[in-house]
Automatic annotation (TrEMBL):
<protein>
    <submittedName>
        <fullName>Carbohydrate ABC transporter substrate-binding protein (CUT1 family)</fullName>
    </submittedName>
</protein>
<keyword id="KW-0813">Transport</keyword>
<dbReference type="InterPro" id="IPR050490">
    <property type="entry name" value="Bact_solute-bd_prot1"/>
</dbReference>
<dbReference type="InterPro" id="IPR006059">
    <property type="entry name" value="SBP"/>
</dbReference>
<dbReference type="Pfam" id="PF01547">
    <property type="entry name" value="SBP_bac_1"/>
</dbReference>
<feature type="signal peptide">
    <location>
        <begin position="1"/>
        <end position="25"/>
    </location>
</feature>
<keyword id="KW-0732">Signal</keyword>
<comment type="similarity">
    <text>Belongs to the bacterial solute-binding protein 1 family.</text>
</comment>
């Protein structure tokens, strides 16, 4: 499948308790009173014309709202930039702190009575835990209205716990992508694969030249291992299908079920093969100590050809990298078993509040709006499934493709499985187990350990 030719025609896998993202691309930046958040004539004061889109959030004199997340480095700077005009118009300063230890630290801070005002949760399972422990407050009516307007019921459901709405969706991403160098493919005479067998044949062909076809990295501070869980989730979708995926995520089948063993070994055929990885870095075990941020960079030096990672990885390419079908890097859809089956793995983030202060509610409402979504997408490096987002604001063809896929009316996808599992597994034993697996542990042993860690209730 040439992704540029079929980007509007991927048929998504249906069946089971599918996450059906029924999203229509309606409205755009112009419908939102400015969309991209561009400035006007009076940038220093944010005059009346500039601030019209922000009047609903109120006026505050020198208030500060703290925001905690796992977002760091370039993406953290981009996130902070989304609040520039909001601060000018409302008087609220948003202080963001990003940490690679977010999943652990947010629990520590909440338990210690030092929680931030707002937090961005990448895992609905962790969000549910924080709600169950009594730390988060329900979202305001304004936040819920924005969620109802901009997001499908399925997306809203991930921010809902026991029938109460707590956290609005923020960003969304498509994970089933493989980054590559179009020029390197052209020079080597390689075609973008359309099936899993084609992908493995291409892998073998490249390896035969003496170059490692793949590069990868799963180190991510306290979240080390999560990129490997994405591999497993994509493989479960491809080898087992949607029904098996749903049963696995909800623990209707055990974590060490033969279907999950098969899917894990499918990923291991690449990730644990020293002939195939880790191009430009080391042997297969070096994946465990290679930063997620750096995992795909050897592509730019011709030391590997492919890197499986989500659409949001665009933000990790160095400044000046041409991300386009004829550029330095681009991405193709991670193929399914056949061309007729194209399952899509997606993920998202959700903004929850630890208090109901008016300034906190104002920032949460802004972050749940189409205005914020268009502003963030236009800054670059991310995607959103918010209906209000204009795909033309996307900063690359890959991200535009991701938005179009997310907004397809008949799009059927599966949310990141580890993010839906109980946090003790999804943000715990699954991460550590995959790190041990990359470091040489046997598949069955690792899956048995993860299964044993699943909470009894």
């Amino acid at each position: 499948m040439k992704i540029t030719a079929k980007k509007r025609g991927l048929s998504m896998l249906a069946g089971g308790a599918a996450l059906t993202l029924v999203l229509s691309a309606c409205g755009g930046a112009d419908d939102l009173g400015g969309g991209g958040g561009g400035g006007g004539d009076d940038e220093a004061t944010g005059g009346d014309a500039d601030c019209a889109a922000f009047e609903e959030y109120g006026s505050f004199d020198g208030e500060t709202v703290s925001l905690f997340s796992s977002i760091r480095e370039t993406e953290a700077d981009q996130l902070q930039d989304t609040f520039t005009q909001f601060t000018e118009c409302t008087g609220i300063t948003v202080e963001h702190n990003g940490s690679g230890e977010f999943e652990q630290q947010i629990v520590v801070q909440a338990e210690g009575g030092n929680a931030p005002d707002l937090a961005i949760f990448p895992q609905p399972g962790l969000l549910s835990r924080m709600v169950g422990d009594g730390y988060l407050v329900p979202a305001s009516e304004a936040v819920e209205a924005n969620a109802d307007e901009g997001w499908s019921e399925d997306w809203k459901a991930y921010g809902t716990v026991d029938g109460e709405f707590y956290a609005a969706p923020l960003m969304a991403s498509v994970k089933s992508f493989v980054w590559y160098s179009p020029s390197a493919f052209e020079e080597g005479g390689y075609e973008v694969p359309t099936t899993w067998d084609d992908l493995m044949a291409l892998t073998e062909e490249i390896a035969a030249t003496g170059t490692k076809p793949w590069c990868a990295g799963i180190e991510s501070g306290g979240a080390t291992g999560w990129p490997a869980t994405d591999w497993i989730e994509d493989m479960v979708l491809r080898s087992g299908g949607g029904d098996v995926y749903d049963q696995w995520v909800t623990h209707e089948i055990p974590f060490n079920d033969p279907a999950i063993v098969e899917a894990t070994d499918m990923a291991g055929a690449i990730l644990k093969n020293d002939d195939y990885v880790n191009g430009g870095i080391g042997d297969s075990r070096s994946i465990a100590t290679t930063s997620f941020n750096d995992g795909g960079l050897p592509i730019l030096d011709g030391e590997c050809y492919m890197h499986r990672q989500a659409s949001f990885y665009e933000a990790q390419w160095p400044e000046g990298t041409d991300v386009s079908p004829e550029g330095d890097v681009f991405a193709f859809y991670l193929p399914g078993v056949s061309e007729d089956e194209s399952p899509l793995l997606v993920a998202g983030e959700f903004v929850g509040a630890f208090n109901d202060n008016e300034a906190t509610q104002a920032v949460q409402a802004y972050m749940s709006s189409g205005e914020w979504a268009n502003t963030r997408v236009e800054i670059g490096g991310v995607t959103s499934a918010n209906r209000a987002v204009d795909p033309e604001l996307a900063s690359s063809d890959v991200l535009r493709l991701a938005i179009e896929l997310l907004q397809q009316e008949d799009a059927v996808a599966r949310f990141d499985g580890s993010d839906l599992m109980p946090s003790a597994v999804g943000a715990g034993s699954f991460w550590t187990g995959m790190t041990q697996w990359i470091d040489g542990e046997e598949t069955q042993t690792v899956l048995d350990q993860i299964e044993a860690s699943w909470p009894a209730s």
